[in-house]
Amino acid sequence: MDYQEQVGEIVSTAKFGDLIEFSYPIGYSHWGVYDEDGHVIHFAVAEEGETLKLIRTYLQSILPVCGDLLIGETRIRRVPLGEVNVPSGAQVLISNNRHAFTPSTPEDMRLRRDALLDQVFTYDLLKLNCEHFATFVRYGKAVCNQIPTRSKNAENAEATATFEGIVSPKETAENHSE
Description:
This protein has helices at residues 3-13, 50-62, 106-116, 130-139, 157-177; strands at 19-23, 29-34, 39-45, 73-80, 91-94, 120-122.
């Protein structure tokens, strides 16, 4: 099945809050959360100046096995699933079984999504990455199972605190306005 057929399969079967894994041929994955209507929310390239854009374009040309190289600032974006930039040979799948946690309620996931959408973060492969984001939205805990030297299903408290620091004030403000 080619990549666009995989995207079509995901769009026809995914439910809000499903973890979407973009499995790259080099052995690591990019992660997002399904957001209905064929869209995914994920760590994406933030607006950047011409110099950084040139650097990123050059690096991607010599490392064609990567999708968007997340260096420096990233922005949480909502985009159509088929528009996520992935390398040739990538697979896209629903991966709700790779983390040993119970999903949060859809209401809690929506609260986290809404608070984090369009926020800008400095990407850090070990401390604040796309899998941390996706698992935080789904479970309320930032976890990354693809770092070989790290324990599986161990919460990254620093990443969770970073996301919570944005979600909690917005949640409090919304509760007070009701």
